[in-house]
Fold this sequence. Notes:
45% strand
Amino acid sequence: MALLPNPIVLQRADPYVLRTDDGYLFTGSYPVYDRITLRRADRLSELQAAEEHTIWRKHESGSGEMSELIWAPEIHRVNGQWVIYFAAAHTTEIDQKADTFQHRVFCLTCDDADPIAGTWTERGKVDTGMDTFALDATTFVHTDGRQYLIWAQQDLAIEGHSNLYIARMANPWTLETEPVMLSKPELDWEKIRFIVEEGPAVLKHDDRIFVTFSASGTGPEYAMGMLTASADADLLDPASWTKSPEPVFASDETVRQFGPGHNSFTETEDGRDVLIYHCRNYVEILGDPLFDPNRHAYMGLIEWAEDGTPRFGTPQMATRFTPATTDVLPPDGRLDVDESL
């Protein structure tokens, strides 16, 4: 099998790719967590070279909401409107009672045709009815035209840092229904170093909906799990969803790809389903892992089994291709933070 042009974007964790009529839009966590950026390219392999545009910056430090640690933005097209969800905190300090950072989910919208050149409006915090650590919101519009939100949030009565929740939306920044917990970390592989389920992503195929998520700590133990539901089921009923007992995508030491996860889904130019995820190619992290910038965005082709379930394979080796040369990441994977920072 031919190698894919990986990574597709360097030093951007939590990657999100949206295919549009004007090409691919890309966003992800900026390494210093102070802004939201977009880049656009005609092909997935051209995203690394594409110009990056800052469309929003965090509020001044110490000024309250949305002033620190901007994490995991996602851009969506919801009923004709551009929508970005992201997590932000009002401080970099840990909430000692919850043993987490102090993030909540926030929303931006844009009514202009071009999300890069357009004006973005702050819609504020998405009130989930629970004032606890929350992050990684994603969304989809179902066949009935209704929008749903899925996100990760902490319940102090449940062991761990975050569970997965779903709700139907009245508009992109307002829940219409009460949150329903879809899943919590309970399997051994979901509780390595940290007890976490986060980073949900939605993949539709035939008559089913798949929600992948990431679990455990963010080192080589980080891996993807999956929930499955029938498309005509009551998606707000936890009984409609089945969790796969084992990870569906995990580290591969043979190609030095560690901690794959926090994924999204898109399509190739010819319509093949694609997994977008981040990965490191080393495990010995120097200093605070939060500020190690070398989780890069990768792509992988999805195969579909006869029973209609996705097969994600394993992460591919890190190799960058250009028309004239082949560039390979350093053996230890370490790059300095890029000059745009």
